[in-house]
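Hi Y.,

Following your request, here is the sequence exactly as I used it, all 202 residues.
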Amino acid sequence: MKKFIKATILDVIVAFLIIILIIFSIYMLLGQTIEESITLINQVAIKVENSSKQEEMKISEDNRLENYPEYGTQYAKIQIPAIDVDLPVYYGDTLEILKNGVGHSSGSYFPGEGGSIIYMGHNSKKVFRRFSELKIGDSIKVTTSYGEFNYKIYDMQLIKETETDKLPIQEEKEILMVYTCYPFNNIGYATQRYVVYAELVE
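Below is the corresponding structure, written out as tokens. Let me know if you'd prefer a different format.
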């Protein structure tokens, strides 16, 4: 009886491991395609909903937005030519928002306001997986309905998620900070962040 129970337990463990291996293989082969399809559907829906809101945004004489976007809506596009990034930017930083593109931390400034701007995105292939290829001097362009803003990278740092002082909010200089999870090929929760720092040049 003991031998039968041991054999049964061993069979269950082997079957479980095989199932895990199959699921992992399917994720590696089809996960990105499924994610891209869902993202595309969400982006189309959000873009249609927000097309009228973008036109209402404009900068006042004291460099402040007169009309801020609603939380969760797209208000800009970010382009990083060096790594072929061309993505929508949404106001907010929830996991649901980050499924659609790049998120904008609600505690930071907006492009053109003269302070710290914090963007974030997943380390997936279609978002920020190629961050390691960026170099000092590479350009980042943010296009909004109220203007186009060009930034130049001057620093890159690997930080812990708890090091919030490495993402300072200040109003003395317009700095764009863009980060993603590290390692870039990580699956699951990551405790490190790779941050790119860029200053406004135009």
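The first helix runs from residue 2 to 54.

Thanks again,
Q.
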